[in-house]
Amino acid sequence: MIVSETAEKIKKMEIRGAGRIARAAAVALRDHALALRAPSNAAFRQEMEKAAGTLVSTRPTAVSLPNAVHLVMAGLDGAATMEEARVAVVQRADTFIQSSQHAVEKIAEFGARHIRDGDTILTHCNSEVALGCIIAAHRGGKDIEVFATEVRPRNQGHITIKTLNDAGIKTNFIVDSAVRSFINDVDLVIVGADAVSVNGAVVNKIGTSQVAHTAAEARVNVLVAAETYKFAPRTVIGELIQIEERPGSEVLPDEIARTLPNVTVRNPAFDVTPAEFIDLIITEQGAIPPQMAYIIIREYLGWEIKEFQ
Ligand code: RI2
Predict the structure, then answer these.
(1) How far is Cα 128 from Cα 252, in angstroms, rounded to an integer?
(2) Which residue out of 31, 77, 187, 194 is catalytically annotated?
(3) Which among 228, 215, 15, 231 is positioned nearest to 123, based on CA atoms?
(4) Which residues contact 106 (CB under 8 A, 6 or more apart)?
C-alpha cells in the first residue's frame, strides 16, 4: 500500500489501535523504500523522511507510531549507498513487525497468569493486547466472563464483543456510563495503552481514567497491557503527550450541531490515568509497577530519547 493510502486509513481510523497503526506504518515505509527510485542516496533519504513525516502526522497520541517510524528510519543512518539504505529500512521494518507480533503474544501469556479461574474482567475500548490476555486465559481453561463497554463515540466496543464472542467467551455489553453499576461484579480491569509517560501515567481511550477511578474506589485491580514501544521517550525531557481531539461530528451530527449555535461539541479521543490508579503494566519484558516506566524507556527505547517527529 502506498504511504498516502496508509496515512489516510490511519486518519480515518480504518486502521486503528496503537499496535496496528505502528505496524501499518512500518509496512508502508518498507514498501515505499522498495519501490522508491531516487537519483541519489541523499534524495532517497529526503523522500523517505517525507513519507515518515506523513505517517507520523496522522494521529498525535499513540507514541507507538513515532517510535516505530524512528526505529525503521534509523536504518538510513550510516548507509553509504541508496541500496544499503533500502536494505536497512526493509530489514528494520520486518524486525519491528515481527517483534511487535511477538510482544503481543508474550503479553497475552504473561497477562493470562494474572487472571484466575472464575474471574470476571472488565475491558474498555478495543485493545489487541488486552484481549490477548483474556483470550489466553480462556484458552488455558479458565472459566471467565467479561464486561465490555460500548466506547462512544466510535463504538470500538463492537469490535471487542465480536472478538470475545468468536472466542466463545461469555460477555456482557454495557454502555460506558454503566461501569460503576457493575464494578462490584468485576474482579479485574484490563485495558490497553496508546502511550505511557515516564511518570507511569497511561494515556488510553477516553473513559479509561473514569473506569480506573471507579475500580480504585471498589478495590478492583487495574492492569494495563502495553508493549515497550508504547512508552514515550520524550516525556523524559518534559514533553507532554498530546491528546488528539477528533471532529465533533463523531459525537453529534453536524445537522443537529448547526441548530445549536451556543453548543460546542468536545471530542477528546484519549485521557490520562495517573500511575496511582494502575496496579501493573504488563509488557513483553514482564510486568512492572507503573512507577518503573523510566526503566523501560531507558533499557528498551535507548538513551538518545529520539522519536521521529
Ligand atoms: P492496542 C486504541 O486507540 C485504544 O485506545 C486502545 O486501548 C489502544 O489504541 C491500544 O490498542 P484507537 O486507535 O495496540 O481506537 O492494544 O483510538 O490494540
Answers:
(1) 28
(2) 194
(3) 215
(4) 284
Four-point Cα dihedral 251, 254, 258, 261, nearest 10: 30
Q: Which residues of 8-142 form beta strands (DSSP E)?
A: 120-123
Which amino acid is present at 87? V
Measure Cα distances from 190 to 46, 159, 204, 270, 279 in Å: 42, 16, 12, 16, 10
Reduced to 3 states (helix: H, G, I; strand: E, B; else coil), residue 189 is strand
Helices 64-73 & 82-112 angle (0-180, nearest 10): 140
Q: How far is CA 174 from CA 31, 157, 188, in A?
A: 41, 9, 16
pLDDT averages per 10-residue partition of the chain, 309 residues: 94 97 98 97 97 97 96 94 97 98 98 98 98 98 98 98 98 98 98 98 98 98 98 92 97 98 98 98 98 94 57
Nine-digit cell at 76?
538510513
Atom of ligand 1 nearest to the CA of 128: 18
**pTM for the full model?**
0.96
d(CA 178, CA 281): 25
Protein residue with least CA distance to atom 7, ligand 1: 192
Atom of ligand 1 nearest to the CA of 13: 13
Tell me if residue 173 falls in helix, strand or coil: strand
Only one residue has cell 479458565, namely 142
pLDDT of residue 262: 98
